[in-house]
Amino acid sequence: MYPLIGDSPSVKGLHCAIQKYAKCDAEVLIQGETGVGKGLCARLIHQASPRRLAPFVEVNCGAIPSGLIASELFGHEKGAFTGAVSDHTGFIQQANHGTLFLDEIGDMPADLQIHLLHFLESKQIHKVGAERVISVDCRVIAASHVDLKQEVVQGNFREDLYYRLNILPLEIPPLRKRGADVLVLARFFLNKIAPSRQVSLTEDAREQLIKHAWPGNVRELRNVIQRALIMSDDDNLEAADFGLEVIDRQMLPASDQIDLDYLLQAISDNKHNMSAAARQLGISRTTLYRLIKKHNLQL
């Protein structure tokens, strides 16, 4: 994990919010594009909180099959269903006394959202197949790469759960809106990835890094720096070493403006993992399925 780096006002504001949020136990909702560092901010809140010595349990709600997510979150008793050969402690119980980080909360199935809301209100869970109630003391931090308020308007996310999670909102700006922070981050990654090399950036390289739209944000920047260090034997990196495609900042795709080729490429890149494809496109999984239906795609 890397620190939250940057000198921009937005990053300074994030540092301030993280320190304030760490002092209390209220739910936090972190929103921002893919790759901006939502998981990093969640961990920083946990590490600065009184719960820092207890577990930090991270769950990607979009990566768990819908048929298993209830069991994975709440746990199950032996014999609760076919294949349940032993008791299973769910992620919520694993986070007891610590922090539960629910990444991509917008991908949580609608029928499970009500159970999560019940837990947030009662701090109690029922394992699948169990009768007894288990009390769990954990803080919940949720994150989403899509606008959850808009998902509520479209009927894809429960309004009551949204407001229950959004007690302490944290909006992380995309890298393209952080100005010279990109150069500070680039220097950090250069030193971290190649500590034995004295690598410098030419003027055209710095200019390209600042002008690039960074649709993949900090994650993309780290990968670009790593690739340039591997491919170039010269310790004076130029713009051409980054291999960046020129992307107009004003032309980044909106959910209803994603063309068919871009849609198919994302699905192919992620081997038909729809949650991963949606994250690459910067849309929700529900919106992705709507676009698939709109284009009459047979996948």
Molecular structure report:
- This protein has 299 residues and is of the alpha/beta class.
- The chain has 3 domains: 9-171, Rossmann fold (3-Layer(aba) Sandwich); 175-249, Orthogonal Bundle (Helicase, Ruva Protein, domain 3); 253-294, Arc Repressor Mutant, subunit A (Orthogonal Bundle), CATH 1.10.10.
- The protein is 42% helix and 11% strand.
- The strands form 3 sheets. Strands 2-3-6-1-7 form a 5-stranded parallel β-sheet.
- Helix 1 (9-22) packs across helix 2 and helix 12 (274-281) packs across helix 13.
- The protein is globular.
- The two termini are 36 Å apart.
Short structural summary:
The protein has three domains: 9-171, Rossmann fold; 175-249, Helicase, Ruva Protein, domain 3, CATH 1.10.8.60; 253-294, Arc Repressor Mutant, subunit A, CATH 1.10.10. Helix content is 42%, strand content 11%.
